[in-house]
Amino acid sequence: MALSLADRGLRPVLIEEAEHVGAAWRRRYDRLRLNTAKHFSHLPGRAYPKSTSVFPTRDDVVAHLEHFVDDERIDLRLSTSVQRIDRRDARWCVQTTAGPIDATHIVVATGYERVPIIPEWPGRRFFTGELLHSSAYRNPAFCQGKRVLVVGAGSSAMEIAHDVATGGATTTWLSVRTVPNIMLRTLPGGFPSDFIATAMHHMPPRMADAMAEVARRLSIGDLSAVGLPRPTEGVFTRGHRLGRAPAIIDTHTLDAIRNRTIAVVPVIERFEQDGVRLADGQSLRPDVIICATGYRRGLEPLVGHLSVLDERGVPLDDGARLADRGLWFLGFQSRPGLIGSVAKRSRRIAVTIGEEIPASRRETPIPGPSRV
After folding, report:
1. Residue 368 has pLDDT above 60, yes or no
2. Last residue of a domain, one of 274, 294, 314
3. Running DSSP on this structure, what letter comes out for residue 107?
4. Which residues have CB under 8 Å from 3's CB, separation 6+?
5. CATH number (domain holding residue 150)
6. What is the pLDDT of residue 318?
7. Both 316 and 281 in a single domain?
8. Does residue 203 sit in the same domain as residue 257?
9. Rounded CA gap, 292 and 289, in Å?
10. Domain end: 294, 315, 335, which one?
11. By the 8 A CB rule, do 184 and 53 touch?
């Protein structure tokens, strides 16, 4: 967003609570790769180096962000947290740990997945093993020789389950509550699936679901025998209704599920001192439980008092309308090719903001930049 504003001749203030840009990416697990190809996953107008693999790694993404961190057109303020945003007449006031900032426009881009969630299962406090959220997982070294239960059915859950299963765990279970829609990251012939999924997102959901079902049968097949029956709701219908992305995986993860290297089990019903009891009555005794159980946006402290969030804490700004004049939200819609979509929308937002800010204010030198 800051780069798109700078490209329109503005000098935005970019507030980042961490000590480095890309902090959220730096914290991801070591083997992470994007589910979207590099062609649609870069900063606006700034492609990855040609040597980058088709699906960039975590470190590729961090390096991509770092490459532009010294752009002098952006007033970057690291180690600064935003505490609250308030309306002040026709302007906005941003309360930060470094003091207040007044602005005519604010773009909130704190992330679709920001605050980790671990369910409050009955008896959880009595569990004596190791329990962590997937956001704290880095690599399987600490799982060697242990029994590991991964909770969740999304991309991260399945990839982490494969990582620990092939990284030395003696047993790997995958606890699934809602059967996911599964898509392969790469289609037969090496074609990135997000090329097609992005186009299908704009089709009527029932039509897109029918096409996705044909692709699922051909590329994935029936997984009912290993605990993953066909979902009752199509991938695009569920995506539009709930903002839920499918589980996007590689063929080696799919193979590990098929051959039961990763054993799919039902949802946790409650915790016991030395393990968990599942919904089907069986008990497991994991040494480690990794909860890939999602996130929430965590926007309430910032803007919860402004009536700009729905009952789920999602911004009312849906990409086609503003939640309030001068207050923008970027990156909170789940959809295929999200990074590329965010880049495109950042440019559209920058155009609109640029049209409202006189050219004379864009030329104000430091220390009095045009604040956006």
Report:
1. no
2. 294
3. E
4. 43, 44, 45, 46, 68, 71, 74, 346
5. 3.50.50.60
6. 67
7. no
8. yes
9. 10
10. 294
11. no
48: its two tokens:
């990855």
Which residues lie across from 108 on neighbouring strands?
A: 329
Q: Please report which residue ranges of the chain form alpha helices under DSSP H.
A: 2-7, 23-26, 58-66, 155-165, 193-200, 205-219, 235-242, 251-258, 300-303, 338-356, 359-362
367 within a domain of the structure (yes/no): no
Which structural domain, as residue segments, surrounds residue 308? 2-114+297-362
- Work out the burial of residue 20: count CB atoms within 10 Å of its CB; fewer than 13 is exposed, 13-18 middle, 19 or more buried: middle
Interval 53-103: pLDDT, tens: 999 999 999 999 999 999 999 999 999 999 999 998 889 999 999 999 999
How high is the mean pLDDT of the chain? 91
- What phi, psi does 132 have (nearest 5°)? -145, 155
Structure tokens at 129: 């093993």
Per-residue pLDDT tens over the stretch 332-345? 887 878 899 999 99
CA 81 vs CA 15, 68, 85, 95, 96: distances in Å: 7, 21, 12, 9, 5
Mean pLDDT of 116-124: 94
Please give the structure tokens belonging to residue 275.
């393990």
37-to-96, 194, 265, 344 alpha-carbon distances in Å: 36, 7, 32, 16
Please name the amino acid found at residue 353: I
Q: Which residue has the higher pLDDT, 239 or 256?
A: 256
Instruction: Please write the tens of the pLDDT for every residue from 4-62.
Output: 999 999 999 999 999 999 999 999 999 999 999 999 899 999 999 999 999 999 999 99
- Tokens 């107008």 locate to 45
Contact in structure between 69 and 63 (CB atoms under 8 Å):
no
pLDDT of residue 139: 97
pLDDT over threshold 80, residue 292: yes
